[in-house]
Amino acid sequence: MREKVIQEARTWLSTPYHHHAAIKGVGVDCAQILIEVYAAAGVVEKVDVGDYPHDWHLHRAEEKYLWWIKKYCRKITVPKMGDIALFTFGRCVSHAAIIVNWPGELIHSYIRQGVVLAAADDAELRGRLHSFWRPKGLK
Q: Whole-angstrom distance between the N-terminal and C-terminal Cα of the chain?
């Protein structure tokens, strides 16, 4: 199943970043790509997280992103392929990446870059790691 997660995540590469969108090749943000990838891989049911402002994390410390992660995932200490790395931007956890090979290969949707293959020590992610999580349906 982990391979299926990564295969699906790779099909999203080069999709432009677009807030609250979830259309492969057209636009997706860092929350919606998680939902789409894990649902397509059969790990979780597709969920609707409702509307959310693009800059909520800059003005509030409420852990909205983390609340959703906690609902569908469990915290882990040693990440494996297909797990999730969470990052802090602004005042709280507000970004995620799917782990291909920690720390050198992550797939995430990043503003002005879209869905890219990146590393945890790339400039935009360096020093922002919060924690690792595993979707409950992933063994």
A: 8
Residues 103-112 have pLDDT tens digits of: 999 999 999 9
CATH numbers and ranges of domains, the chain: 2-135 (3.90.1720.10)
Query: Rounded to whole angstroms, how far apart are CA atoms 10 and 22?
Result: 15
pLDDT one-digit tens code per residue, 15-45: 999 999 999 999 999 999 999 999 999 999 9
Which helix (H) or strand (E) segment holds residue 122: the answer is: none
H or E element that contains 28: strand 27-28
Asked if the peptide bond before residue 103 counts as cis, ω within 30 degrees of 0, the response is yes
Three-class SS of residue 42?
A: coil
Query: Which residues on neighbouring strands pair with residue 106, listed in sequence order?
Result: 99, 118
